[in-house]
Amino acid sequence: MPMAQVPPMDKQAHLLLSLLAKPQQMADLDLQTWDVFIRQARNADLLGRVYELVAEYQLFDDVPLPVRPHLLSARRVARRHRAMVHFELGNLLGILASLETPVVVLKGAAYVLAGLPVAAGRVFSDIDLMVAKDHLDEAEKLLKVQAWLASADSYDDKYYRKWMHELPPLQHLKRHTLLDLHHAILPQTARLKPSSAKLFAAAVAVDDYPNAYVLCPEDMVLHSATHLFQDDEFKHGARDLVDLDTLLRHFAEDDGFWQRLVSRGEVMDLSRPLYYALRFCQRMLETPVPESVMVQAARVGRPVGPLAFCMDKLLERALVADHPMCVDHFTGLAKWLLYIRSHYLRMPFHLLIPHLLHKAFISPIKARRMERKVESRPTIEGLIAENKAK
Amino acid sequence: MIVGDYSIEALQGLISDSGLRFDVGPFTVSLQSSLDKFAADIHLMYGAYPLSTQPFADFHVRLDQPFGLRRWFRPQTNFTQDGRTPFKPLPLVQSFAMFEWGLNWCVSSQSHQYLIVHAAVVERGGMALIMPAPPGSGKSTLCAGLVSRGWRLLTDELALISLDRPGEVIALPRPVSLKNESIDVIRDFAPTQIIGPIAHDTAKGTVAHMAAPRESVQRSGETATSRLLIFPKYSPAASTQITPRQKAASFMELADQSFNFNILGELGFRTLKEVLDHCDCYDLIYSDLDDVIVQLEHLIDANGTGTADG
Amino acid sequence: MWASSTWFVNPANPIFFGAWPGEDTVVAYQSISGDTHLISAMGAAVLELLQVGPLSAEAIFKDLFPDEEPVDSAITTLRNNFLLHFEQLGLIEKFVS
Question: What are the pLDDT digits (tens) for A67-115?
Fold first, then answer.
């Protein structure tokens, strides 16, 4: 079916994002709407964020009684995740201290380390760190000694090391925490090549740890934009969009930020993902992007003609909350096309097909970043344990 | 109004359409299914449960056949909550068991307003007997036996421990799961109890469920104060032996059987500690249901007037 | 060489204790890493001391057994049976000056 005939998505599908864009509206929700809202938020891993917004806007008394335990439960999980991230970061940075090289903390763990508002209510699936390429092997050795072991099956392991020039995800033997250790924010085989050297040069030191850095604000936004729009997993579409929106609103408190952001996007060769990020944040979460900034970002980042329109339709479908209510007939196709696209952007074409075939038919399709089980608990029944499909 | 007020046909209509919404302990469940015969199981096993009066459910669950050509060849059942499933599909005949396991998963993974422990809890005289449940302990058989003799069922699998009232257990009465020989044992022991569909060849052998007694369901709103912590072990032909054990080691076992002990962090630790403060702990070896029940009744009645230790 | 080691509980991973009168074992729970241990009453006393502040093996001994002579063999036993063991379990860390 030609893209031009695709109808807009149902209003209910945008409930989650529209409430996150205007949290004050939560004060007026009836119980039936809360029912839908909670479920969409849970599916999008945003229930903790909803709790934080309720707290920030002082809406507790407006939340009906049956709804409260769900928010409370999500808050407990988010707090636990945050405490675990702190703990693991301390552990990891200590292990890597002997490298005597900067360690850049990326994404969620960076938000926690920098104490950014975006960290509130968030859950984390892994820790992302970046070190200079020369130190990668040594880092892996130091981590191995401390029970951080490569967790991928042997095909994926080769995929990471040989084709992507990355380490496979590492996992702590006892605590099962996942660690992604990179030397760049995009794989070497990707089409876009943001310079790691530039990222390191602009990185900001962190007070508590002598070897720890986070990306500068502009790079943090660019990285998040890249992650959302290039990554082959859209399970977190809504969540990642919220991350971006929250980062932008926070950094925009500094007057020069917007201009620096667009300029940096050009320098880093990331104008395209930045354009998409700004466009969709503005459209779906009403992020206050200044019009002049939008114009400039479009000038340097917008794709030409039909591609732009197609991408709009594709991305709109992939970004709304991942919930059956939000699915229309085209969402499956949209997600599949985006999956292909993101692999295309990562790998040269001749390498693409065998890998995709393998993923679809040989290995079970598993999320690369698995839901973290922070508690060590017995499985309730052997059958439940055996039957965990994801 | 209760679920059983509907005819099976009416229930089938509701489940295949907008959904059946009913209360299970502190939770409201919305159940939908496209399966033909599922309503009969729900009518039998959940007939006594109150229909929900509010437009909000804690868990929206579905049982359907998965997509694809498997519909005709060895048909299967799939459990989903809001489109997500924690499980691989199971044979269609295991649909009721699938519902139970699915609901267990929902409660245990999303209800961190409680400390949730894998244990059976029964009550007599206002006092709760908690039986943690490593596999093979026979705790479900014992639980079914006690409940058939008048003890109130708070739960067979998921003990909900209050985080703000020390030692209190919240009732979540649901079907008691029975395996293999236990099914016949309980049929003989308590012929009037309702035993639901039997699923053969599951990963755990043959599985069936005994419905929660009507009175236990009606008293879902009542909590119970923990008093005895008992670690049962069925041992063929053994005489009943109840031996005291230390609280510290019992704490470790209970923590090991907890789903969200670590998510709750310090709060989880303090809550579990309070349970141990309230309880006397025992190991239990038994083979004769009649005898062990009498002895447990003596034990809990003797502790009736005692105050919590520690 | 040994004299320069002090031991401490990492404040980023505090320990909570569960103890009941008349029992010789104690539960030690590390709330951040989630590890739960069953240890002896004396072990719990050692950990409680180290949670307050770093101490050497000698200082621990003197605090627990103020009337005893801190002979080498006793200190070594304390170190081997408790301190090194606890370090391996991740309950305490060593600071070597």
Answer: 999 999 999 999 988 988 999 999 999 999 999 999 999 999 999 999 9
Which member of B252, B269, B272 has the closest CB to residue C31?
A: B269
Q: What is the pLDDT of residue B37?
A: 87
C11 touching chain A per CB within 8 A: no
Please tell me the pTM assigned to this model: 0.86
Taking the CA atoms of residue B237, residue B241, residue B247 and residue B249 in that order, the dihedral angle to the nearest 10 degrees is: -40
Amino acid identity of residue A210, one-letter, is P
Q: Are residues B276 and B163 in the same domain?
A: yes
Residues 6+ positions from B67 with CB-CB distance below 8 Å: none
Looking at the structure, tell me whether residues B185 and B211 fall in a common domain.
Answer: yes
Q: Distance (Å, rounded) from C-alpha B268 to C-alpha B259?
A: 10
**Beta-carbon pairs below 8 A across chains B and C:** 46
| Residues B89 and B173 occupy one common structural domain | no
Which residues in C lie closer than 8 A to residue A87 (C-beta atoms)?
Answer: 12-13, 32-33
A72 touches chain B (CB under 8 A): yes
Question: Which residue in the block uniquely carries the two structure tokens 């229909």?
Answer: B51
> How far apart (Å, rounded) are the C-alpha atoms in residues A327 and A318?
9
Least Cα separation, residue B160 to chain C (angstroms):
20
Q: Of the residues B86, B110, B134, which one is the last residue of a structural domain? A: B110
* Lowest mean pLDDT across A44-48, A204-208, B50-54, B71-75: B71-75
A35 CB within 8 Å of a chain B CB: yes
Residue B261 structure tokens:
């002990």
Q: Does A49 reside within a domain?
A: yes
Looking at per-residue pLDDT, the higher value among B263 and A327 belongs to: B263
Contacts of B279 (CB under 8 A, 6+ apart): B130, B167, B226, B227, B228, B229, B247, B250
Q: Which domain holds residue C92?
A: 2-96
Q: Give the pair of three-digit tokens for residue A354.
A: 């065998």
Contacts of B272 in chain C (CB under 8 A): 18
Distances (CA, A) of B286 to B122, B138, B240: 18, 10, 4
Q: Tell me the chain A residues in contact with residue B56 when contact means C-beta distances shorter than 8 Å.
A: 31-32, 34-35, 64, 66-67
Query: Amino acid letter at B164?
Result: D
3-state helix, strand, coil in chain C (%, to 5): 40, 25, 35
Encoded amino acid at A35, one letter:
D
**B26 lies in some domain:** yes
What is the spatial distance between Cα A260 and Cα A271, in angstroms, rounded to a whole number? 12
Among chain A residues, the shortest Cα distance to B103 is held by: A384
| Cβ pair B264, B112 in contact under 8 A | yes
- Percent of chain A with pLDDT strictly greater than 70: 70
Domain that holds residue B209: 115-302
Chains with ≥3 CB–CB distances under 8 Å to B: A, C
